[in-house]
Design brief:
- This protein is an alpha+beta fold.
- The protein has a single domain, classed as 3-Layer(aba) Sandwich (Aminopeptidase).
- Helix content is 34%, strand content 23%.
- It is built from 6 helices and 8 strands.
- An 8-stranded mixed sheet has the order 1-2-3-4-5-6-8-7, sandwiched between helices.
- Helix 1 packs across helix 2.
- It is globular.
- The protein starts with a strand and ends with a strand.
- The chain binds coenzyme A.
- Coenzyme A binds next to strand 5, helix 5 and helix 6.
């Protein structure tokens, strides 16, 4: 375990199985500031954003903790092709959990169909697949833990692991409307890869269209 700095009691450590249920609370609380109005996966968010990583690459899953309380996490994945993709998760949940009966998901599917017509000819967001950056990550902190260096401590730990494991590079995808997160990733050495691309189906809190920015980092 490593202290975030010499003065706070925050530690960054690797995920443990006992964290699983408590991380659901962190995920639920860390959506504040998210530009997207609703979640597509709904009550299945923990399966997609936590369990997929805890089961698939637990050594790349880091948590930040203070006095036994979890404040945030970074879910990394060294080899993105080894985990089910977001769209594979979505399709499986549509089939097995009849996700299309959820009103927010039904609305999302309707918007996707509509957007596929209005966005014809535009370069829309898609899942990233480039052997130069096979690894990827997600990071989230509860609101009161932000701006204190905890995100950078989690990221440094992940970047250390990427170096140790010999990964050629790591990508992430963030909504370009999430300007605070983009500024954070830039500060952590990530570079913009291509231009922001419009996302099908998603809407912001005021009904506006949202865009996805891919960013990359190489050790
Ligand atoms: C994005 C997030 C992980 C950053 O973690 P954090 O602990 O708040 O960031 P830190 O305090 O470690 O900041 C590190 C650096 O990033 C930059 N940064 C962080 N937040 C910033 C902001 N709101 N605006 C501008 N720069 C910012 C700072 O320049 C800081 O550099 P410094 O060391 O020179 O001060 C965190 O705010 C968060 O969980 N946000 C909500 C979830 C989210 O948006 N996740 C990403 C989705 S893709």
């Amino acid at each position: 375990m490593a202290n975030v700095d010499g003065t706070t009691g925050v530690t960054v450590r690797t995920y443990r199985e006992q964290d699983r249920s408590r991380l659901r609370g962190v995920l639920a609380r860390s959506g504040e500031g998210d530009p997207a109005a609703t979640s597509v996966f709904g009550e299945h968010d923990p399966a997609v954003w936590l369990d997929r990583y805890a089961d698939g690459d637990p050594g790349s899953f880091f948590v930040a903790e203070e006095d036994g309380e979890l404040l945030g996490y970074l879910t990394g994945c060294l080899d993105t092709s080894a985990l089910p993709s977001d769209s594979e998760c979505f399709e499986r949940l549509l089939r097995t959990e009849r996700l299309f009966l959820r009103p927010e998901t039904a609305l999302f599917l309707g918007r996707m169909a509509f957007d596929s017509i209005v966005d014809r000819g535009k370069e829309t967001a898609k899942e990233f697949d480039d052997p130069r950056w096979p690894s990827h990550l997600h990071i989230r902190l509860v609101p009161e833990a932000r701006g204190k260096g905890i995100g950078s401590a989690l990221m440094r730990r992940w970047q250390e692991r990427l170096r140790e494991e010999g990964s050629p590079g790591c990508f992430l995808q963030a909504m370009s409307e999430n300007t605070e997160a983009i500024a954070f990733f830039e500060r952590m050495g990530f570079e913009h890869h291509g231009r922001p691309r419009i996302i099908s189906g998603f809407r912001g809190r005021n009904g506006e269209r949202l865009h996805l920015q891919t960013m990359v980092w190489s050790p």
